[in-house]
Amino acid sequence: MSTLSLISIGPGDLDYMLPAAMGALRRADVIIGYQIYLDQLRKLIAPHQELISSQLGQEVQRATHAIDLASAGKTVAMVSSGDIGIYAMASPIFDVLRERDWDGAAPNVEVYPGVSAIQATAAYIGAPLGHDFCTISLSDLLTPWPVIQKRVKAAAWGDFVIGFYNPRSKKRDWQLGWAIDVLRDFRPADTPVIIARNATRPDQDIRFVTLADFDPTVVDMFTLVLVGNSQSYVLADRVATPRGYTEKGQPRETKDAVTAADNEILSYPISLTQMNGKMATVIGGGPVATRKVRGLLSVGANVMVVSPELTAGLQTLLDEGQITWLSRKYEAQDIEGATLVFAATNDRDVNRAIGETCATKHILCSVADAPGEGNFHSMAIHRSEDVVLAVGTQGSQPSKAKEVRNQLRWLLDQQ
Ligand SMILES: C[S@@+](CC[C@H](N)C(=O)[O-])C[C@H]1O[C@@H](n2cnc3c(N)ncnc32)[C@H](O)[C@@H]1O
């Protein structure tokens, strides 16, 4: 019977090729595949077997040729790396069979599974695929980029562990960075990202970094990038993903979580409007202070910043005349006349003192690093034309609020 065997050869080292696939390879009269795969298989190939080396990118011609040979009575083996059914030759073979109204029998087609790059990588590094995962190819050669974008966002939103195949090439050098930026909006900064180059091959290089530190430019087409979910963790030199979630549906506690007592603060969210002419004082000149200043300016407040230094963003606002600046450390009289105050310095004692002074003077105050010491806190905001979305966690976990805000923003974008 004429047979076409679709044979997975594994990610590199032939120890990762399954015995069933090896048996099918031995039975073949003709073996078709890229030259590098034929070279890899050399010790398994007998002298009587005919070898046909194919060119990169000619998938349909290769599939047609293999089917023609098998239909003419040969036992043909088509070989592909990893698993032949995953971003490989099995699909083009079935596409051509479909065009020919294949009857399921002539030729006989058998598919031999194998170890895909994601499995070899996962096994080497520990157990990162312990919970729901997906693979996404970032190649837009055959898939429109908007479709890939939608899948990345959906996988990010669904908290799937994600294996990125075909992650980055010389011509396609920014897509991986885009995908990682999406994931940074959804997952903790310390989420492990595994960079696996040439898994199981002689020059294998598999390591991991945090999502915050990941640099897409180190990645090429011989690499698989595996991003953990919100629960994935590092243990010694390994990465694992738990079978479940620590608290049902909740990401693990993030680094900015504060004490249980703080979580018990009751709150009643309100929206600040019409601050025109009202004085708001922001103490601190860093990134947190900058965000607060921008929010206050958007509702018309007169903003005064007290800090020895300013971020570039605050400096620009100062240059544009949008804020006033007291260029020194905080002093108690700085809050006189303020309607509300943000304590956003990087000094715990100063922030506490600001909260206490505001309390005695009945001035509304938000203490960035200890929400319980003030009487309001801001929320993670998203504004669109007709919706303002505000997500809060009683001030205790700003990054979690941001994460939920991003997920809701994504849902709104889908409408
Ligand atoms: C066209 S896909 C083929 C996937 C293959 N069928 C599999 O199951 O692994 C090629 C991509 O797979 C990944 N890949 C394949 N073999 C790899 C290996 N040994 N190490 C790391 N990544 C690999 C890379 O992302 C590469 O760009």
Task: Give an account of the 3D structure.
It is built from 12 helices and 20 strands. With 415 residues, it is an alpha/beta fold. Strands 3-2-4-1-5 form a 5-stranded parallel sheet, sandwiched between helices. The protein has a 5-stranded mixed sheet with strand order 7-8-11-9-10, with helices on both faces. Helix 6 packs parallel to helix 7 (175-186). It starts with a strand and ends with a helix. Residues 253-263 have low confidence and may be disordered. Bound molecules: S-adenosylmethionine. S-adenosylmethionine binds next to strand 9 and strand 11.
Cα(first) to Cα(last) distance is: 54 Å
Tell me the helix content. Answer: 25-40%
The main pleated sheet reads as: 5 strands, parallel
**Share in β-strands:** 15-25%
Number of strands: 20
Q: What value does the average pLDDT take?
A: 91
Structural class: alpha/beta
The radius of gyration over CA amounts to 29 Å
Strand order of the largest sheet: 3-2-4-1-5
| Helix count, DSSP H or I runs of 4 or more residues | 12
Low-confidence stretches: 253-263
Q: Name the bound molecules.
A: S-adenosylmethionine
Based on Cα principal axes, name the global outline: elongated
List the helices and strands and how they pair.
Blueprint: E1 3-8, H1 19-27, E2 30-34, H2 35-40, E3 50-54, H3 59-71, E4 75-80, H4 90-99, E5 108-112, H5 117-125, E6 126-127, E7 133-137, H6 145-157, E8 161-165, H7 175-186, E9 192-197, E10 205-210, E11 223-227, E12 233-235, E13 238-240, H8 260-263, E14 279-283, H9 287-298, E15 302-306, H10 312-319, E16 323-326, E17 340-343, H11 348-361, E18 364-367, E19 380-383, E20 388-391, H12 398-414
Parallel strand pairs: 1-4, 1-5, 2-3, 2-4, 6-13, 7-8, 14-15, 14-17, 15-16, 17-18
Antiparallel strand pairs: 8-11, 9-10, 9-11, 12-13, 19-20
Helix pairs in contact: 3-4, 6-7
The protein binds S-adenosylmethionine (SAM).
S-adenosylmethionine binds at residues 11-12, 80-83, 86-88, 116-117, 165-167, 196-201, 221-224.
